[in-house]
TrEMBL record:
GO terms for molecular function: 16S rRNA pseudouridine(516) synthase activity; RNA binding. This is Pseudouridine synthase. PANTHER family: PSEUDOURIDINE SYNTHASE, PSEUDOURIDINE SYNTHASE FAMILY PROTEIN-RELATED. Belongs to the pseudouridine synthase RsuA family. The keyword RNA-binding applies.
Amino acid sequence: MRLDQFLQKTLGVSRQTARSILKSKQVSVNGEMVKQAKHQLDLAVDRVFYGQEPLVYQEFYYWMLNKPKGYVSSHIHDGGIPIYQLLEDFSHVEMHCAGRLDVDTTGLVLITNNGQWSHRVAHPSQACFKRYRVMTQMPLSDDAIAALEKGVTLGNGETTLPATVVRLADNEIELSICEGKFHQVKRMLKAVDNEVIDLHRLQIGAITLGDLAEGDYRALTEAEIEEFA
């Protein structure tokens, strides 16, 4: 990798700024000051410092975020605030969501710059387990819960796979599914003549939101990353 590209990725700066930093004689490679932008690095061996700060290249990033309402899982203001603004310290990383949430849905979102990893999380063919807390407009009858557990027919004629349902209150459940149909949870509740008024994602695969505060994020652990490796 070229040294100027390395500085762009590790410092989150433009190529022009990276070259200005090199000209200022603040960058050393293996103890030797280097000014050449085209200098080729061996990332497995070379040690790069910016002043007294060691710079370490990281190819892939993985985070979990507790999405608040009003944020959209895109890079544009498409009816809400882009979720990536909550990770402003990593604005230089070309990140994306591994499984989106609607603007009015809260909870667990996985964010990465590894396209193959996110495919294994989000693509419907992967049948990834997801658990939600669902609040409905009206109380849910035992028959409605039984229908959700068996699988319901959606408005377009599709039938869902059996779900796991835990009742929390008359109009509140935990719903676990292994599919990723468009707006699936909301459509499932509509199929039993009800409506979702609050939807919160708690879990994807074995990765749980835990006590992460709303609007906060953290890096995934190695074990969590390996869940979809």
